[in-house]
What we know:
This protein is mainly alpha-helical. It has helices at residues 4-26, 36-92, 97-114, 130-140, 147-172, 180-200, 205-229, 241-249.
Amino acid sequence: MMSSMTISWLVFACVFGGALLGIIIRTVVPAHHLSPESKDIVKLGMGLIATMAALLLGLLVSSTKGSYDKQRNELTEMSAKIIVLDRLMAHYGSETKEARDLLRRSAVRLLNETWPENSSRPAQSEPTAAWAEALYDNIQALAPQNAAQRSFQAQALSRIIDLGQMRWLMIEQSGSSISIVFLVVVVFWLTIIFVSFGLYGPPNATVIVTLFLCALSVSGALFLILELDQPFEGLIQIPSAPLRDALSRLGK
């Protein structure tokens, strides 16, 4: 799939191109097509389309921002559970050294896959949560000697199940939630609106610059929506600080 930056520039080209097309059409259509009566009808129709486009853009911003915040909170919660799991295994005893090493390696792998050092490479997700299964089997194989160890083992197993579920949730949420058809329809509406702007606006430098800035603003809004829809890629990424902080506390 194309990057959000590329799509945004395509949207800008369509919208601003529509404005320029309107200016060109203005020079060839008969004068009576540009009469005040015709202008009023076009304004009513464009007002309806503009309202629908504004509502959809507002809903998209709200939806993607909510999804972004939700995944950010899930990452923070996951990082906290990793720390708690490590402390539970530490309290169990030295028998969990192998499991704690496995937990640390898994956290490092998760960090490198989600935020690769090579920024040009997209974030990747494990096809399975095999690390959680291996960690679960390792803890399950322990032979607790007293009630305290049995309690720590049970709590650790519960945390591992939670982490596995959260990891699968991150994988399932990694795809885009914005339909291409939906995006095409919104861009089509915006292009029609800008064609009308160019058609009935005086073709001077001030109008052209204004339409340019308006088209840039609209494409910028769609850029923000697309960026928020992919929270682990692009310019507006979920910060890796919670997971890095968890890593710094593991094994202590």
